Amino acid sequence: MTGPIARSRRRSAAVVAAVLTCSTALTGSHLAAAGGEPIPAVATGELDWKPCVQDGRYDCSTATVPLDHAHPGGRTIELAVVRRKATDPRRRIGTLFFNPGGPGGPGTVQMPQNYEFFPREVRERFDIVSRDPRGIGNSTAVNCFGSPEEAEAWSAGHPAGFPVGERERKAYIDSFRELGRNCERRDPDLLRHVSTADTARDLDQLRRLVGERLLTYLGVSYGTILGATYANLYPDTVRAMVLDSNIAPSAWTDDGSDQARLPTFQRIGSDRSAAATLERFLSLCGTATIEQCAFSAGSARATRDKFDELTKRLRERPVGPWTYARTVGDVVNSLYVVHPGWTELARRLQELWRGLVPAAPAPPATTPPVPTPYLGDEQAAAVFRGDSPHPRDPDLFTALEEAGAVRFGDAGRYWTWAGEPCSTWPAVSANRYTGPWNKPTAQPVLVVGTTYDPSTSYADAEAMSEELADARLLTDDGYGHTALLNPSRCINDHVNRYLVDGVLPPPGTRCEPDALPLSAPEPRGGIATGGGGTARGVKDPA
Q: Distance between CA atoms of 201 and 204, rounded to whole angstroms?
């Protein structure tokens, strides 16, 4: 999951993140339309793969799908798809579908940028396929502006991070209200058909288009709620499914309600988890050397006090464009990837402490195989705000912010305002899925949860493993958002064994990261728990 709304994703797409009225209770592996008739399977033929224009190691294609799967003869939209073939084709098992989170993560960009993070054997044995989901990036996209200049002007009209003070709050609320109006004027039908359920239906069509009888899937962050939705709409087609950094289905849907008392980020515990992760960052920084953590004040308590003093200073005297709110937003987003994110965060905080404007972060080291598309705030917003219910009164958010700050400090303020734009969003999904979440799948699901995650709480991973009919929880006693981007050989070993051989980790398995934050890497991890339960003999798809 990402904050308001995914500006960190535009700075570095390698960071994965970080969201009504019509729903249908469905059974079996086929979807039903509102009238109860099965939605026909319209995918035929196969994808026409060609080498991608900017990197021939990847193949690119375009899939055409219905805007509304219940009416396949109506308007169609396009999905941009990317593939990296298995590096050991003689031992190839099949296709692994990957969703990088968001909502709104462009798979054509983020899968290639994060490709080296996939476990080696996964890269050897699977074609890895991702796509820009409907409404996003190079696919048929939500775009609420007539030009890049209009989009930049809108973005400049509200504060970075979150609003501070009555004037900024009014400007922030008005700005996002106007964004919603612009979007509804330009393409109201698309806004109502970018739900998680719509994207799950697209995923099943892509499965058939690449010739897979069963689905093998890895989803991170928002990709976990997409995976859970797919697993309950198409339970009979699940071969293997890894859900990493989870969003509890009951929290995402607010137990199926149309009117929510709390914003989604508060329901899933982003504020609580971010505050706990920030506390660990400051504590570990305080016990590290200056060389390891530039912001260290020599002890955990002194470093926490130093951070509080810095944020107090920035409220009164920003350092260039670095306001209090921008700094808090940068802190939360920089906790996502530990190496080198935490070291770089400490450097920026120390520069601000000295009254210096921090240097801009380095761009991603890799060039995506396709041109980087427009990724405006409205794209993630259309999915998040149309799919997950929020309070509809923007005037509630000042009180919610203060309550969040009392419990979770600066992170509470940040995550409160991350959800406010949803209060004035005009569109709701025409095909929202709200459960049930416990349909028995053909094979069990592997749920991976990290104990100190600044976006999706470990409690949500526990809830996901309980709400799904058949799931095994694998605990990463580590830090950052997603185990994929914060590697642990122990986690990778278990993911490998599950995806390749169908072997689940034993109940209660816990893994450590390869290296502690803000320290030199140490040999850690590896499977130390012995055997492993089998996933009822997962077979290679035929």
A: 5
